[in-house]
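In response to reviewer comment 3 from the previous cycle, which asked for concrete evidence that the modeling workflow produces usable outputs, we include below a single protein chain processed end to end. The sequence was submitted unchanged, and the resulting structure tokens are shown without manual editing.
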Amino acid sequence: MARHRKGQAISGWVCLDKPEGLGSTQAVGRVRRAFDAQKAGHAGTLDPLATGILPIALGEATKTVPFLMDADKTYRFTVAWGASTASFDRDGAVTVTSPARPGPDLVAKALTAFVGEIEQIPPDFSAVKVNGARAYDLARQGSPLDLAPRKVVIHAARLTGGDRDHAEIEVECGKGTYIRSLVRDLAVALDACAHVSALRRTRVGAFTEERAVGLEFIERMCDTGAPLEALLPVETPLDDIPAVAVTTEDAFRLTQGRSIVLLPRQVETLRAALSASRTVSALHSGRIVALCEMRAGRLNPTRVFHLS
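The workflow returned the following structure tokens.
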């Protein structure tokens, strides 16, 4: 006998504006409980210190999380000059101090060296795994770490404001970029000491501040019986994936895990839009039925969606 899963079969995305002091896992738990959802997950962890965009997937939307993990992100943050910390943010213990206070012209010039593909060493207090353990757990135990550099891409880095003791910066970057590591390396380049004193993520792919909702709004909507007002469609992270409309019969075949044959004009249109992944969204009546791989004029389902 099949085990009944607790909660409601609710599917969609929440573009949460995460408050400061709340961990990503805690935020997901509160959203899932508010919706009484059977399943929930998130794309792109935010430290408790950080605020801003934390995309949370409910139900069938969890099948699209991998497509958001590679999305570009935008951050606004404040650099505090004068002290470096163990974690490179204001929560860490001070490790070294300096009287250096780089001026805006020097900061703006130094930022240009970090734009493009660069190598970046993750901070010791990070979720990077070392022999199966999280780096932050090892760092808290005092274990010596020698994390390998990783290639990341920074599309743009702009100085937006500040004062003698602070620099306010906005960065657009690819996956895997650590803002705390950027601030660490920026301080070294300027022969100064610094840490992140405030951090806000303003975009993750198609999830922006304009779409964001707070926890209180979500909980209020759910309490008043209007939870759908806080939900975005399951397809939200799939904006860059070509889509094709399918018939009712073909939609049924795809939900059964069977492939379908495309019309020649559909094949021609999709080939012009396909990326190297060859992934296509199959839609019926405007809703996603399956994510598929196109091969030899056929769509082979790789992820099937069961939306009521």
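Residues 12 and 233 are 5 Å apart (CA to CA). We consider this sufficient to address the reviewer's concern, and the full set will be provided in the supplementary archive.
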